[in-house]
Amino acid sequence: MSLKSGLASFFLLQFGSLSSSTSTSTAVRRCNFGHLRPVPPSKRAFTCLATSSPQSAEKVKISGGGRCNVTNGHCPDTKILAEHYPRGHRELRGSFFNTHGPGDTMSWFTDHGVALKIEEDGRVFPITNNSSSIVDCLLSEARERGGKTVTSVSAGVQGKFILKVEKRSVEFLEYLEADYLLIASGGSRQGYDLAVQLGHSIVDGVPSLFTFKIKDPLLSELSGLGPMLVTHWGLSGPVILRLSAWGARDLFRAGYKALLMVDFVPDLHIEDMKSILSQQKQKFAKQKVLNSCPSEFGIVKRFWKYMLDREGQYKDEFVTAGGVPLSEISLKTMESKIRPNLFFAGEVLNVDGVTGGFNFQNAWSGGYIAGTTIGELAAKAVC
C-alpha cells in the first residue's frame, strides 16, 4: 500500500439504526458510513470503522524517515498549496483545501493529544519525532469508534454495498450492508479493481517520489553533499524526489533510463562560468587543474575532483501516480459522478504531491470532505 494509503478510512463513522440477522456462520448488518462532524446522540445509534487491511498504517509508520511528515505548514494560500501536486494541481485550486487544509489537520492532531512542530522547510512532524505518535492517535480513535477490518467489498442490490468484515473466529463471518462507501485504499490494485467494478476508469499507476540509481562507483565518495543527497546507489534527497514526481510518467515511458543534468552552480550563467574558467587557467597556469577549483563555484574539492575524473531510477517508490480520474468525481463532496453514494479519497485518485507532507494532506482533506458529506447524508436519512 502506498503512502496516501487508507488514511481517510480511519474516520469512517457509522450512523443510523442497527438491524441484524444471524445464522451459525453469517451475520448481515445494515449501516450508513459517515465521518467526523458531530451528530446528536439521538440520531446516531452506533459507530463503525472500516479499514482496508490490518496494515493500513504501515506507510504512516515509515514516512518521513520514521517521523511521519503529517502536512506542510508553509502554504496558507491554497492556490500555492495546489501547485505542489504534479497530478491534480489544476483541480485542487478550488475549494478542496479551503474545506480542510493544513491548519485544520494540525488542529485535529493537537486536539487529540499530538503536539506538532513546523520545521524550517515547512514540514510538520510530531514533536516526539516518532511516527508512532500519529499511528497510535489514529488507531486509538479507531478503537474508540468500534473499529473493524474490512477484507473485501462488493456491489449489493438497490445501490447498496456489501462489506466483508474480518472476525477473530473463522466460524463466524460478518457482512455489513452499507448505504455509502468511501474507497480510501491507497495505490493498491484491490482499490483500483473495485473502482472499475463499480463503473470507474483507472489511469494506470506508475511510481512517483523515488530516488535515482546511478552506476558510478566514484559517486559514493561524495555522500552527503547538499539538498541533492549522494548515496551508495545514486542520488536522493528532496530535489531528486520532487524531480521524480514531476517527471513520473516521462521516466516510466523511458524505461527509467535517462540523462540527468544537474546544475551545481545555478546562480551563474554558462557564459560567466566559461569566463571564470578561462581566468582561472591564466591565473594558475602552472598549477594542476585538480588544485585550482574556482572559489566562485562554491563547490568542495572532492566534488571538483569527481567532475574532472569522469557520468537510473531506483523504483522503491513512496507514492503512486495514477488512479481514478478526478473528472469522474466531485471534489466538493468526493462523490462519484458515475455511481451515487460512492466516494473516493487519497491515493486511489489520480492525485500525487511532491515530498513535504503534501500527499498526507491530500488524504486528510479528501477523507474529511467525503466523510463529512456521508455523515450529513446519513443524518438526514435517519431524521
TrEMBL record:
Pfam families: HI0933_like, HI0933_like_1st. Residues 226-313 form the RsdA/BaiN/AoA(So)-like insert domain. The keyword Signal applies. Residues 51-372 form the RsdA/BaiN/AoA(So)-like Rossmann fold-like domain. Residues 1-21 form the signal peptide. Keywords: Signal. This is FAD/NAD(P)-binding oxidoreductase family protein. It comes from Linum tenue.
